[in-house]
Amino acid sequence: xxxxxxxxxxxxxxxxxxxxxxxxxxxxxxxxxxxxxxxxxxxxxxxxxxxxxxxxxxxxxxxxxxxxxxxxxxxxxxxxxxxxxxxxxxxxxxxxxxxxxxxxxxxxxxxxxxxxxxxxxxxxxxxxxxxxxxxxxxxxxxxxxxxxxxxxxxxxxxxxxxxxxxxxxxxxxxxxxxxxxxxxxxxxxxxxxxxxxxxxxxxxxxxxxxxxxxxxxxxxxxxxxxxxxxxxxxxxxxxxxxxxxxxxxxxxxxxxxxxxxxxxxxxxxxxxxxxxxxxxxxxxxxxxxxxxxxxxxxxxxxxxxxxxxxxxxxxxxxxxxxxxxxxxxxxxxxxxxxxxxxxxxxxxxxxxxxxxxxxxxxxxxxxxxxxxxxxxxxxxxxxxxxxxxxxxxxxxxxxxxxxxxxxxxxxxxxxxx
Length: 417
Ligand SMILES: *Cc1c(COP(=O)(O)O)cnc(C)c1O
Prior knowledge:
The protein is α/β, with parallel strands linked by helices. The chain folds into two domains: about 5-30 and about 280-410, Lyase, Ornithine Decarboxylase, Chain A, domain 1 (Beta Barrel), CATH 2.40.37; about 105-270, Alanine racemase (TIM Barrel, Alpha-Beta Barrel). The chain has helices at about 20-25, 35-45, 65-75, 85-90, 110-115, 125-140, 175-185, 210-225, 250-260, 275-280, 310-315, 405-410, and strands at about 5, 10-15, 15, 30-35, 55-60, 75-80, 100, 120-125, 145-150, 175, 190-195, 235, 270, 285-295, 300-305, 320-325, 335-340, 350-360, 365, 390-395, 395-400. A hairpin with a 4-residue loop joins strand 14 (about 285-295) and strand 15. Helix 8 packs parallel to helix 9.
């Protein structure tokens, strides 16, 4: 179902007109639908029904407390990559006992924080990290639960920046050394082996690479089982792709089916770590046209959102559908091909190329599929306060993050005496 519903010619999210949100909270502004977040989560739950499984939302995709809390209430676990994300999950009432901690460079302090919180599992990405965690757990009088993140070396066929499971990637430990490392982990006194993990990339549309990775991981689990190393869970990561434009993104159950086939008859708990597929299509960025500029070669619509608010177009040349919200003042305006750009002093500051729209200054635009890696990757470049975030719950728009003020941006800075 599309996030924006038109009723009586007015664009709504759930029962709230987008124009009302812009009027009340200003633009730019991220808007999410609680119903869409819930539906995406429930699609995973339904696809995994009948087997032992846990859905660990990848917090980095969108870490707003209200979003984490929606998933926590639905029973989600969480995949975190920093001490900051750990603090967010706890603040959002998430269960630390359902947290997995990924990342290649966990600091000692972050490990300590996670051990104190009692997280479910550390996903270990190197031999050194294994030793550091064992030492620290010993000092704290604890046993640290671990999985090794292995690198199955399958090609996920996605953008190189978001492909993480190839041999050349910085993530995970190579398959060949995993056996040795598990033996080492088995011998270390302050570690407890819980499982095995992999995550091969993001925005994956073809389900086969994930199924191939599952098969490889299972092979390793069986090989280690012969040596008496047991696994409570198998964590197959996240990465399911979504539709931004015309991608043939599969329904969740269809995407997961080949992977689940590989796991038939197995008793280990399955963990998945979806990020984008839970939040991406549940959010949009609402922005207003400030200036129309008609050049000789191109027409520009300068909007109040920019690359600091939504970095994906500038960073990955990513496509986001851009729709006009309502008729605005443009009844009768001529449809032209526009470059949709922000006010930032960079040529890379664009949100969309060559979009055919009938626009007038003051019109509202919705930049779709912006719920994942949108606000989470935003910055204060050009001293632009980060935008407001609103979550619609049926008839009510809730402000879930107020717009930053300029004063807040330099509150931590100091002049020389
Ligand atoms: C980013 C990440 C995810 C989530 O990826 P999506 O493509 O957003 O589903 C899951 N697990 C790990 C380890 C990650 O780094």
